[in-house]
Structure formats: C-alpha cells, structure tokens
Amino acid sequence: MSTRAREADAQEYPSWINDAVAGCVATAPMTLFMLLTQRFLPHGQRYDLPPEIIIQDLARRAHLHWLLSKRQVLLATLVSHFGYGTAMGLFYRPVERYMPGPSLAKGGGFGLLVWVASYLGLLPALGLVESAYREPGRRNLMMIAAHLVWGSATGLLASLFANRR
C-alpha cells in the first residue's frame, strides 16, 4: 500500500459528516418500521404516512400534483424522508453531549426530541402536517416508536463512527 493510500485511510471525517451519515442510514430501519406497523393500525388510521402526506401537499401547493405519478411521489417521499433524517442527524452530537447514559438511550431520547420538535412544532407551524395533538393516539404511538427506532440507530451508528477513529 502506498504512503498516500495509507494517509487517505487514516484521514478522519469530521464528526458532523459521521452524524449526518448515521441519521441517513438510521432512516432505513425507521421507514421499514413505519411501513410494517402501519398495517396494524385500525383501518381508519391506515392513511398515508407523514412523509408522503407532506410530499403530496407540497406538490399540490406547487400545482405539480397532476404531473406526478404515484411512483414519482413515492420516490420524492423517500428522498425527502432520508434527507430529513440526514439533516436531523447533524443535530445529534451537539444534543447528545448533554444527555446521560449509553448511546442507545441517548439516541432514543434524541429520537423523541426530534418527534416532539417535528410533530408538535416545526411541521405544523409550516402547515405541512396536522399537529400530533390532532392525530389518533395509536398513530402517534406508531410515529413515536418509529422515532425511537431512528434515534436509537442514529445514536449507535454515531458512537460506532466516533469509536472507529
């Protein structure tokens, strides 16, 4: 192995990149969890998940809804959901410093914080989704659990990346 190759291998990524990657990767099990558990909700609560509702609403607001096929909506939904998970991952390290416990607990707590900030604050304030106060209890429980999955995975991955150094 050349000296340059060894130097490239030894080069560290900034922690914010690791945290963004952790948030992005953690969105995969979260998305799978939401899709699987949605099937167990009462029939009247099995409507589209928040990421898809947001994309459909944004497409309507931009007068593009008639242009997009269901497949394009789903692709945009996935891209935006993983993008949001990546962006929220950027906030993990500054917040986790103030949280006690192991990475799994810190991540789970962070996931709950993201749910509260998103569904009781930011997203309703932007008019993108109804406040969680207006959603049925079981649907909220599903979304809270999904954010626990995401946060726990984010915490574990961020810790793994940090220890890799």
UniProtKB/TrEMBL annotation:
Gene source species: Ktedonobacter racemifer DSM 44963
Alphabetized InterPro entries for the sequence: DUF1440
Membrane-crossing residue ranges in chain numbering: 20-37, 73-92, 112-129, 141-162
UniProt keyword terms in alphabetical order: Membrane, Transmembrane, Transmembrane helix
Protein's name according to its UniProt entry: DUF1440 domain-containing protein
Pfam families reported for this sequence: DUF1440
